[in-house]
Amino acid sequence: MSTPLYLGLDSSTQSLKAVAIDDRLGVVAEFAVNYDADLPEFKTTGGVHRGADGLTVTSPPLLWVAALDLLFARMKEARFPFARVVAVSGSGQQHGSVFFRQGARTTLAGLKATAPLRDQLKDAFAIGASPVWMDSSTTRQCLALETALGCPQAVADLTGSRAYERFTGNQIAKLAKAEPAGYEATERITLVSSFVASLLIGDYAPIDVSDGSGMNLLDIRRKAWAPRALAATAPGLDARLGAPTASHATIGRIHPYYVGRYGFATTCQVVAFSGDNPCSLAGLRLQEPGDVAISLGTSDTMFGALREPRPSASEGHIFASPVDPDGYMAMIVYKNGSLTREAIRDAVAEGSWSRFEALLAKGVPGNGGSIGFYYKEPEITPPVLKTGTHRFGPDGRPCTAFAPEAEVRAVVEGQFLSMRLHSGNVGLKPVQILATGGASANRSILQVMSNVFGVPVFTATQPNSAALGAAYRALHGWTCAAQGRFVPFAEVMKAAPPFTRAAMPDTKANAVYTAMLPVYAKLEKSIG
Ligand code: ADP
Ligand code: XUL
Fold first, then answer.
1. Which of 324, 251, 254 is nearest to 291 (CA)?
2. What pTM does this model have?
3. Ligand 2 pocket check: which of 11, 12, 57, 95 to mutate, most ligand atoms within 8 Å of Cβ?
4. 169, 238 in Cβ contact below 8 A?
5. CATH 3.30.420.40 placement within the chain
6. Which residue minimizes the CA distance to atom 1 of ligand 2?
7. Is 441 in the pocket of ligand 1 (CB under 6 A)?
8. Pairing label, strands 432-436, 457-459
9. In CATH, which of 3.40.50.1820, 3.30.420.40, 3.30.497.10, 3.10.129.10 is domain 338-459+503-527?
10. Under a CB-based contact definition with an 8 Å cutoff, are residues 224 and 244 in contact?
11. Residue 298 near ligand 1, beta carbon < 6 Å
12. 375 CA to middle of ligand 2, Å?
């Protein structure tokens, strides 16, 4: 008998990916569909449509539907052994929402293997443009929620984050007003994660508590919808959301559509889907407080496991853990990540990362007291709407320019000092850091990271941490169901490959950064 496989899907902003693992946690297959290139008829750029107001950003849900069939068709063509998959789970870009029209549940249940999903589901949506995480058009709704609950900290204490524009509840509040007929006709609202899960089980899949924490609607301690937040958001919301589920729960078997069309086994279990950041937490196996990841991608994120939630209205998010029913994760998000480093590289390092590294090596830890703030984009952490660069000399006075080596060092040191400052405020205390994302290929950047935090930095070999995390979660959920009890995630992860050590901290440099931190914090405040 051939060994079982566990499948992880990742429905992200620009693509749909699949990673399959075996029961020794080895990756056996990977597939991907790129929305812009492979489904050009939906006319997306980077997977999205941008509104004329510069704030609204949406994607057509039918695109995500079409991508699922295309992905599975590619896997079938490559003779992927669907019959060996015993469990599937998935990851979705966080915060995005899908509005199923009345009657869609019946349509989902009755899917026929003879026709593509997109033909059968083309009339299933009450709102044809799904808002995604890049949308920032709901400032008014955010203010309304914070007023209704008292203040930003009250929203954070209840839901894990103060009101954020991209968070789903504020998006729903906007649409309920802007498209009342569409909202009225809505039978179920899903996140992107539970949407793809719904397609797989042919029924409305519940929202898991971890991705559900990115909505400003879930009481993160009770892990149930917060009635006061629902009431302040839109009428009749409770029924439209359905009850949330534990992240490790099996939510049903795969629908006969996938058995008939692709050859899945009828017994294949679907484990609740979750958000991409929660799934990355699972993929990087961050379980103990002190295990922290820094993802240096298009944007930079820092996240880690947490036992006690300590929500802050000033920065960051607290989510329920996707792998531990009693745990939490904290996360901070930066818009000024790789693209901002690239802008400095292009300005002073001739567009070359090796030149950038050489300049970084030329300077000394602490940059002789020079500090810079580079807000190429409006920043999330701390919230700074006005773009611009702010440089300060060793005397704390503003200055207009740095020498190239000081400029490169200022952008990298500034980003990690900010992470140390703000992650500390949400309770993250790294003991070791796992670095992922494009810029984690840069050893000099990782050395600064290690020195600023004073802890060793490791890297993972598998780049798609969200899809891998979804596959790990499929195995985890399946194991819990098979044993009829909650099995700790660490127990299931025993065979996982070790991470590679990329940098060790220099204690002297670390002491310099510790002394710099209050100065950095003061300057940051003076700008905001
Ligand atoms: P995403 O998944 O968010 O689209 P990635 O994690 O693939 O992004 O990261 C892409 C970014 O990685 C690029 O924008 C680039 O700036 C950065 N990058 C790639 N190589 C290097 C390097 N050697 N040094 C620093 N940054 C790099
Ligand atoms: C997290 C966030 C993004 C999305 C898309 O809060 O907005 O990271 O999950 O990746």
1. 324
2. 0.91
3. 95
4. no
5. 5-279, 338-459+503-527
6. 94
7. yes
8. parallel
9. 3.30.420.40
10. yes
11. yes
12. 19
- 5-279 classified as CATH 3.30.420.40: yes
Residue nearest to atom 7 of ligand 2 (CA): 133
Q: What does the pLDDT profile of the chain (528 residues) look like in tens digits?
A: 589 999 999 999 889 999 999 999 999 999 999 999 999 999 999 899 999 988 899 999 999 999 999 999 999 999 999 999 999 999 999 999 999 999 999 999 999 999 999 999 999 999 999 999 988 899 999 999 999 999 999 999 999 999 999 999 999 999 999 999 999 999 999 999 999 999 999 999 999 999 999 999 999 999 999 999 999 999 999 999 999 999 999 999 999 999 999 999 999 999 999 999 999 999 999 977 788 999 988 779 999 998 889 898 988 999 999 999 999 999 999 988 888 999 999 999 999 999 999 999 999 999 999 999 999 877 889 988 788 999 999 999 999 999 999 999 999 999 999 999 999 988 899 999 999 888 998 999 999 999 999 999 999 877 788 999 999 999 999 999 999 999 999 999 999 988 999 999 999 999 999 999 999 999 999 997
Residue nearest to atom 10 of ligand 1 (CA): 438
Q: Whose CA is nearest to atom 3 of ligand 2?
A: 94
95 lines ligand 2 (CB under 6 A): yes
Three-class SS of 46-58: CCEEECCCCCCEE
Q: Which two tokens stand for residue 407?
A: 């400029």
- 381 touches ligand 2 (CB under 6 Å): no
Ligand 1 and 342: CB distance under 6 A: yes
Residue 199 tokens read as 């397609």
Look up residue 223 and give its DSSP letter. T
Work out the angle at residue 192's Cα, subtended by the Cα atoms of residues 187 and 196, and round it to the nearest 5 degrees. 85
